[in-house]
Specification:
Blueprint (H helix, E strand, L loop, with lengths): L1 H12 L6 H5 L2 H11 L4 H7 L4 H22 L3 H14 L1 H11 L3 H29 L3 H11 L3 H11 L1 H15 L2 H13 L9 H16 L3 H24 L12 H23 L1
Length: 282
């Protein structure tokens, strides 16, 4: 909604290039990602996710590179394929918002990737609990399944909470294992998209993101502090996405096709049964 509001705002008010939302560009997104880092504690995530961490890592890596491969086969522009692959493999909109400024994604590209992931997340919240009940999954199994197969953290928790409180706790804990992959994702994205530009500077917000994780690891923030930081992070992300929306150029939207949706659906169709088989039989 934030992106669409930005688009409508720019459309009706015919914003000049010097308008503040265009000048600040992706800075609010970067601030939001840095604050998000302060809610991640590496030792805690590794401890609680130890049983599933190897499988989570395998899912993340396999999904990400499968997305890039499918995108190449379908002839999708590599920025869109990179956004969708990152969103599907790690943590949906958060991952895409984190790498968008690094890969210099156009507002239209981020918009279509966000829209696709949003639609799949909306379906997941409705269909996953129904499927879990039909398949007779336990609370732990459903929480693990949601954490592995659904994209955005909010949708993971939403789906699991409909099933049971225990499922939500399991899902939130295991989802951290995927969120941690934001760190190598950001580094890989910078290396792939900026290595050819000798004058490109290493994105400073990546350093602050890692420092924020270290600070949380050292001080072990309690639940209240982390909840406050998550709220602040979401606020900056929402503002940042609004700014992205105001940079939208409708003339370039015609270059996009239905192929990105096919890519996201193909990844999801492969991940859902694979994740179910893993949590049910391993």
């Amino acid at each position: 909604m934030s992106i669409f509001l930005g688009i409508l705002f720019a459309y009706f008010f015919k914003l000049p290039k010097t308008f503040i939302s265009k000048k600040v560009s992706t800075i609010p997104l970067q601030i939001g990602i840095v604050i998000l880092g302060a809610t991640i504690s590496l030792p805690y995530a590794l401890d609680v996710s130890s049983e599933y961490l190897p499988w989570i890592s395998l899912f993340v890596v396999a999904s990400f590179f499968a997305g890039l491969l499918i995108g190449k086969i379908l002839g999708i522009h590599r920025r869109i394929a990179f956004l969708l692959s990152a969103g599907a493999a790690i943590c949906g909109g958060t991952a895409m918002a984190a790498i968008a400024p690094i890969i210099k994604a156009k507002p239209q590209e981020l918009l279509i990737a966000m829209t696709i992931i949003f639609l799949l997340n909306a379906l997941a919240i409705i269909l996953f609990p129904l499927a879990g009940n039909y398949l007779g999954m336990s609370n732990f199994e459903f929480g693990a399944w949601s954490a592995l197969a659904i994209h955005d953290t909010s949708s993971v928790i939403g789906s699991a909470l409909i099933f049971s409180n225990e499922s939500a706790q399991v899902a939130a804990t295991l989802k951290l294992g995927r969120t941690i992959w934001l760190i190598p994702l950001i580094l890989i994205a910078n290396w792939i998209f900026n290595r050819e530009v000798t004058a490109a500077k290493f994105p400073r917000f990546i350093i602050f993101f890692i420092l924020a994780i270290i600070i949380n690891t050292l001080f072990n923030f309690n639940y209240e502090v982390q909840n406050f930081l998550q709220t602040i992070s979401q606020a900056f992300l929402i503002v940042g996405l609004f700014c992205i929306g105001t940079q939208f150029n409708s003339s370039e939207l015609s270059s996009l096709s239905g192929k990105p949706l096919i890519l996201a659906l193909m990844l999801w169709v492969a991940v859902i049964p694979s994740a179910y088989y893993l949590v049910k039989y391993f």
